[in-house]
Amino acid sequence: MHLILIGAPGSGKGTQARRLVKTYGIVHISTGDMLREAVHSGSDLGVLVNTYISQGHLVPDTHVTTLVEERLDRGDLPNGFVIDGYPRTVGQIGEFDRIMKSRQRTLDAVLRIDVPAEVVINRLSDRRIDPETGRIYNLNLEGDHPDPDLEVRLVQRNDDRPEIIKQRLSTYNAETLPVIEQYREMGQLIEVNGARAPSLVFASIQRRLSSQTESQ
Ligand code: AP5
């Protein structure tokens, strides 16, 4: 199975990707995580990437596409993958198509998680991440609050500051909404309402995926 997860910053792509991994045995590929790893490594690429991410701008297509190609060639994707954060510009659609075709892989669906801007702004301000497990928390979501001894080690992403969130949303509207439109026109888009509890969003994704499989 090969899926793209697309949606605004904070729409819940990472949260739903973890559930898809557990349920379908596929691998989560996150361009955001790969780029942050490059930043933490302190490499020349990481230093360059940080100048874009820290301001809420997109990293140039060529760098991200190279990372995606290298990731797909690692040989650990027997059941496929869910890619979260790519393609994110119209230019990346063509690159992704080329990458998939040249590796005899076929895209099954593009899952769009749709959440209003005011909801994602609150979510991103309340997001904390466990650096040891990668588990994502929403400090304001009932039942999602970590134990106090765990909470002390949680971190906030550098780009989850109010002024950068605003820029990320405007970049999303300008660069990524056209990607969604293109996949809609290609008949590959599955849209789910992401402004509900994570379990309800996931139930909806599962339903839509299984009805798509039945109709094929
Ligand atoms: P990336 O890491 O991909 O960030 P993003 O798209 O802004 O998305 P987020 O990771 O912020 O949010 P999410 O949708 O995964 O939500 P999450 O599940 O964490 O990219 C970062 C940067 O890298 C970009 O800005 C860009 O610079 C660069 N980049 C990446 N890909 C690129 C590309 N292809 N080209 C160029 N540049 C690229 O959830 C958010 C919060 O909400 C959490 O607290 C979570 O617990 C909570 N939550 C989730 N679901 C729910 C729910 N249903 N109800 C209540 N709370 C919820």
Report on this model:
This protein has a 5-stranded parallel beta sheet, sandwiched between helices. Strands 5-6 form a two-stranded antiparallel ribbon. It has about 220 residues and is an alpha/beta fold. The chain has helices at about 15-25, 30-40, 45-55, 60-70, 90-100, 115-125, 150, 160-185, 200-215, and strands at about 1-5, 25-30, 80-85, 110-115, 125-130, 135-140, 190-195. It starts with a strand and ends with a helix. Bound molecules: BIS(adenosine)-5'-pentaphosphate (AP5). BIS(adenosine)-5'-pentaphosphate binds near residues 13, 57, 88, 141 and 168. The site of BIS(adenosine)-5'-pentaphosphate (AP5) has 35 residues, from helix 1, helix 2, helix 3, helix 6 and strand 6.
Oligomer: single chain
What ligands does this structure carry?
BIS(adenosine)-5'-pentaphosphate
Q: Which class do the helix and strand fractions yield?
A: alpha/beta
Strand content: 5-15%
| Order of strands, widest sheet | 2-3-1-4-7
Average pLDDT taken over every residue: 95
The DSSP helix count reads 9
**Span from first to last CA?**
14 Å
Question: How many strands, which pairing sense, and closed or not: the largest β-sheet?
Answer: 5 strands, parallel
Coarse morphology: globular
- The ordered H/E elements are EHEHHHEHEHEEHHEH
Low-confidence stretches: none
Name the helicity range. Answer: 40-55%
Rg is 17 Å
Number of strands: 7
